What does this fold into?
Amino acid sequence: MKRIVFLAVVLAALMAQATVTPLYLDETAPLEQRIDDLLPRLTLDEKLAIIHAQSKFSSAGVPRLGIPTFWTDDGPHGVRPDVLWDEWEQAGATNDSCVAFPALTCLAATWNPAMAHRYGVALGEEARYRGKDMILGPGVNIYRTPLNGRNFEYMGEDPYLASIMVVPYVQGLQSQGVAACVKHYALNNNELFRHTTNVIIDDRALHEIYLPAFKAAVQQGHAWGIMGAYNLYKNIHNCHNPYLLNDILKRDWGFDGVVVSDWGGAHDTEQAIRYGLDLEFGTWTNGLSEGARNAYDNYYLALPYKRLIEQGKYTTRELDEKVRRVLRLFMRTTLRDYRPRGSMCSADHYDAARTIAGEGIVLLQNKGGVLPIDTRRVRRVLVVGENAIKMMTVGGGSSSLKVQREVLPLDGLKARLQRDGIEVDYARGYVGDTTGAYNGVTTGQNLVDHRTPAQLIDDAVSKARQADAVVFFGGLNKSNHQDAEEYDREDYGLPYGQNEVIEALAKANKNLVVVNISGNAVAMPWRDRVPAIVQGWFIGSEAGNALADVLVGDVNPSGKLPFTWPERLQDVGAHAVGDYPGTKRTGEDIWDEEYREGLYVGYRWVDKAKTRPAFAFGHGLSYTTFTLGKAVVSSNHITAADSLTVTVPVTNTGSCAGAEVVQLYVRDVKSSMPRPAKELKGFKKVYLQPGQTAQVSITIGRDALSYYDDTRHQWVAEPGDFELLLGTASDRLPVKAKFTLE
Ligand code: BGC
It folds into this structure.
């Protein structure tokens, strides 16, 4: 009997030992202890393998220890279709057609953080279903010039708005176990010469304008990844930049995630070792361009790094720091016992895309109540323009998508109007770019039309004369030098002779609506002759439905511009006094670009230079009207430690339900340092029935009053008088309140 008991005890002990989980896999243990356990188990080669790419979008795991391959993918508006292991061409998968969500300018235009959270969750679900561990997005580079080809991927000109919107996107995405990779850190504000631009900027503008959204993504969103930008700052590339990465991001902000290089953004092994890069990805870096079989071994953080360690030039101190960060990323994603499985092309994702678009579309102008289209009175509607029939999800660079479906503006509007028995006709108006392909994804559309511009205009005009209302869909597209990566726009005007078409239509029919599809502002010389103007963005899969919702009034528009819409390019600080696109150094392929306008970006420049934009930052109309009452502040005297709440009643004074964004700007009445005349420091979107009033309260803290002191390198709130300006656009702030900071 004793022997049996003894044997049973031994057996139980052996079984217990056999099933002991290594500490690094024990999710109940503290994260850092798990990393401490895992790190020494890796060989030098395994450590090096996980800090650089092994294919276009993946990096190696540690197969020996059961750590899976790590998969990234673009970003930021939908999950990019799968490409070949080593090439940009399509892998030919038949299960990678996604939902395209509205581009980030549209998301920012919702001024609704709940929309950003829904966006992040839906995108995360699509990413999980496709087996992706990191999405290369969101983008939060500041809108400095309307010529930047990539503005559509970003969240506008204001650091506060971008900060508030990026945080829930990151949180929503990461709630699905998918890492965000916030990009492009930092100062990547134009595409022209993006690999060779060296930005010269003062510390205040850097900290007050260009960094806050990244900081919020890190400190409030707890982003697990940041992508270094292609350009240079202080003469050193941003993918291994000691100031931006080691000092600001990792030391000052306490970032514990992974710095990923933009694809091919690393340039030097020793800089990459020392200056903050953790995970190197590439496109044309050594090896790949030479077609070597061991291409990825030639990455800066691969064999060249190993050689330096073997030669004794470096210990594994820096390497272990990078590996620690990458392992932390694995623990947050691929090493989790349970991650949501995700879902793709679900009804909920289409609904998210349509709802976000509906909240982001901006009604810029609406004279004489041309909009919404009165479906009881109007019998014949003419739709004009290439952008009514052109797919916009293909093209534009790395954010190009392969969609399961994309409802075109003409189709969406036609379907909606025909429900009410309205006849819809179409005229082309102009021919822009009829191509539609990116990395092997083609739209399959044949948009070729050989008629001359005059014939196209004649046709559109004669049809317009017969119609009760005309809706023109134009703007930009995703072709090079429009809204596209790698190229900036070449001028501010609309391309393809669209101005002539619009002018002719305005003469032919007084009920003209222009819907501008773009991620950027464009010149509108015909603005006074066109009663209704809508900013329609690039809104993805549900474009046609969402635009129809707003045009007929099924959805009451509530979008607000996330950037200033200048009348002319010279009214933009970067063009008036800045150095766009920089000055080429003699004998060197470097463009020094000085941000001479400093803090004065967007509406800050408008206030300083006293220009009048076509449409102000924060502007956006509704089919109803709102009035704001008197503001009440919680206290007239506060100390730096206090917060302050301002409350203002908002009433829907019109006849239909709608949403308004109450915007709060702060003005430092007297300051020892130059400061912008006002800065956005709070906002809230409220939904109101006709006649309904809501009390909107916005609380601000010391940060809302501070500027960055570049001599002390800290944020300072100077005692004195402050003014609060409240209203519904940066140029419509009728409500004022005052307080004093002791
Ligand atoms: C872009 C990034 C993108 C990466 C991978 C780069 O050229 O700048 O935004 O995530 O390619 O496609």
Q: What stands out?
A: Residues 74-75, 136, 183, 262-263, 398 surround beta-D-glucopyranose (CB under 6 Å).
